[in-house]
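ERR on first pass: missing label on line 2. Operator R.T. fixed the label and resubmitted. Corrected input:
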Amino acid sequence: MKILLINGPNLQLLGTREPGIYGSDTLDSIIGEVKALAAELGCTIEAFQSNVEGELVSRIGEAAAGGFDGIIINAAAYTHTSVALRDAISAVALPAIEVHLSNTARREEFRHHSFIAPVCLGVIAGFGKNSYLLALRALHAEILQKNK
Ligand code: DQA
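pass 2 clean. output:
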């Protein structure tokens, strides 16, 4: 099982970026923990981060042909703005889970709406790096179920 882990804008700054909101783990260390859990579950992770909306769209668009079984995505600020990312997830028709470190529902009003959530299996938000680990467990279970 092969899973694409997408991280959007400004997440390369994790570790120093507003640690009171996002925690002090770096993106590399979070990806390392996701990969360690993936190894336990018997799946592989390919991680991609970009600050450029079109690069994220292209990467998602290539995912089905690239042999991926599912997508975990923290689209960061593009969650709240991007019809293009939503359409990309919808187009590849792979199971996807939206994640956020922070609980976006408890934050500013403009973070309450997600363009992406309606084309995802579900959303996990508010658990810091554990949001990613929970998403991996959920996606792994969903894909196993689907392939039964
Ligand atoms: C975020 C929440 C978004 O609202 C914000 O723009 C981010 C990070 C999170 O992981 O909590 O950049 O996706």
